[in-house]
Amino acid sequence: MQKSTFLWLLLLMIAVFGSGGGLIYYVCKADILELSEGDPCPERQGFPSRTCVKEAACTTLNDYKDLNLSEENEKSCDFSSPNPEKLICCPDLLPLNFTTTIQPPIKPQTLIFKYLASVGYYEQISMDDYEYRYTAIVLSPSHVLATSPSLKLSNNMVPVHVILGTSDPRVYVDTQVFRTVVNRRKITMDLALYELENPISENQLLKTISIANLCDRADFLNSPNMKAIGYAQNQTYSTSCAMFTKQVQLVDFNKCHNVLSTLKLEDIVGSKTHLCVTPGTDHFTPGDDNRCSKCLTATSSVLHVQRPDGSFCVGGIATPTTNECVVNSEPLYYTILQSGTLRKFIPPALREI
Predict the structure, then answer these.
(1) Whole-prediction pTM value?
(2) Fold of 116-350
């Protein structure tokens, strides 16, 4: 047996049988350092410079406990010395003087579309809080488009503001933008237009909010890739939950003739104003929340169409045929959003579409 191999076996036996019940730190050959007191420890990316010292003499180690760097810093650096006191790699600097280069764990990507919004109402019971419903679209710095049922809820509550730049209206983040609604009106049987008290600033448009890019008729040709995006609906309170996305497919308009319309819309006259779409078989994203339903109509989900360059444009909003939140694979209508039709409702100086 080679001398080096015998040495490692001996060290392993000492660590296992001679520890006297004490803590075993490292028994893997790759983790054992043979240094003398005062020697520098090997450099490791993401860790401060360290020196091999007696454990009792290390005054900086506890400061690294909260940074989750202590495991590497506590590496024993002298297994071959007869010194009865353990030697460890001790950080040379306090955390305040050391900036770690370790990258934080990558969090799951949050679903955010900067031109989508949710409509806010006073909470009926307390009247000192807000609840959010429906998915809306930023059309200009001063205007947001929503589905017509959002103008007044069944409890007679009317919109008071909109929230922009959020992936979940239930959770506040500092990138959210609130705007008070000063004027609201129904512009078609399907659609409502909200005027904001204060226009969205140029700085906000660059960083956190954007104006929706509406599709052209040509974008619907040749069976493009399409998806519906909206805020899910709480099953108990009918309020908005986290944003979701669902693959959908454009189908022959006649397949929507049996769509149940409890709201009795009269202007679904054909494929010039509306589209017939069926949900795909893919799973909803992000992960399902059993308290919230990813229904397409009652949430007023927004139809997105993928262009040949890979970008998406906004093609429509779910036609409000019902307020009932039902998740199924049945066909449904989407109201086509065309810039030429919508421009006439926005003053020329404020147009962005």
Answers:
(1) 0.66
(2) Thrombin, subunit H (2.40.10)
